[in-house]
Write a structure and sequence with these properties.
Length: about 220
């Protein structure tokens, strides 16, 4: 009687590389990015937390104690590079709204991605976005859609949260990406931590499907 052949173990699928990229002056979008990191890790991704470089003059930063304090508290978080974009299978952006659009710092960084775009290095990246504003109609949806316009030019795969989980309704019900209102004291009005983590997990799940299909 021949010995039973040992079945070879099925290899684990490769982990999704998730870059959580944020811009934040006083901390709201940094906190949202931290929640996205937690959700991404829970979904099994290899995660990098990265900040978009600040180019506002020091005098402007120093004129706002909350801005100065946040800059000092996050000085050790690495700044995003083009190499990070190439490394990532999935990207989550967390940025505030500025007049219904992304902040200039974010636009400046996105404008440096032309070389990667030209060589097809950004195609099929799985992307999602989040934002914040001082009032519910302060351009939250528009800011996310403006960011997604760039992602469409990349040839990226945009993954909005839609209404895929009840937690989204408790966070304000934004189907384009989690958004939060910030009051005059700088505190978040809605509880969005669960919605952010759901959005991150959903993004990683779709990125895993895409990555597995390429194997």
């Amino acid at each position: 009687m021949e010995p039973k052949k040992q079945e070879e173990p099925i290899p684990e699928p490769p982990k999704v590389n998730l870059a959580v990229i944020y811009y934040s002056s006083t901390g709201t979008n940094h906190q949202m990015a931290e929640w996205a990191v937690a959700g991404g890790k829970e979904a099994g991704a290899e995660v990098k937390l990265l900040k978009i470089p600040e180019w506002a003059p020091q005098s402007a930063i120093d004129s706002n104690p909350a801005w100065r304090a946040h800059m000092d508290a996050t000085k050790d978080i690495p700044e995003v590079t083009l190499h990070d974009l190439e490394w990532a299978d999935a990207i989550i952006f967390s940025v505030p709204t500025r007049f219904g659009n992304v902040p200039g710092q974010v636009k400046q960084f996105l404008d440096t991605t032309g070389g990667l775009w030209f060589h097809g290095k950004l195609a099929n990246k799985v992307v999602s976005a989040m934002t914040s504003a001082q009032n519910a109609h302060g351009g939250q949806e528009q800011t996310i859609m403006q960011l997604y316009t760039t992602m469409h030019h990349w040839g990226a795969i945009v993954v909005p949260p839609g209404y895929t989980d009840p937690v989204i309704f408790g966070a304000g019900g934004n189907p384009y990406g989690t958004s939060v209102t910030v009051n005059q004291e700088g505190k978040m009005v809605e509880d969005v931590s669960g919605a952010v983590q759901h959005q991150a997990k959903r993004t990683v799940t779709v990125a895993q499907w895409v990555k597995n299909s390429k194997q």
